[in-house]
Write a structure and sequence with these properties.
The protein is mostly helical and 190 residues long. The protein has 9 helices and no strands. Keywords: DNA-binding.
Amino acid sequence: MPAAPSERRLSTAEERRETVLRTALGAFAARGYYGTTTGEVAKSAGISQAYVYRLFPDKEALFLSVVEHCFARIRESLADGVAGAAGSSAEAVLHAMGDAYARLIAEENTLLLVQMHAQCAAVSEPAVREVVQRGYARMVEYVRGVSGGSEPQVQDFFAKGMLCHLVVAVDADGVDAPWARTLSAGIRHY
């Protein structure tokens, strides 16, 4: 008896949406909000641009979804840090979260790049600004809540995170100069 032809399984809209988000993450990381087109994302995802528009009404909505995805991944990473903290003091929890974040952006550098592009676009794009503000509002409250840190400790946690972005972006760790040593001193990166 001949073998039955294998059935072709079509992906669901949610699976396609995830594919488009992953593809868009890479595209926006590489070229930013202004330099990326939905056509490029569609081509990379292997779907039509019209289908991208069925999933996301416009490029702005797609970018906002990518930014939200980044905040969600960062939150997951921070939670992993909390779970692995060497103690329950604010210092121990903040240190563990900082380490988890440093590992995350080393392993998934697209998250770092999208964050930087989103912060730049937030200057002139109100919808992007609102998503970035909401993302940081949630993140600050999460960090404050799980660490029990004081206002200065939480502020220092985020300030070091931003400095970590700069150190990684300009490869300060790879530069043998006083300015680079000053900026990268005490900053964990992998």
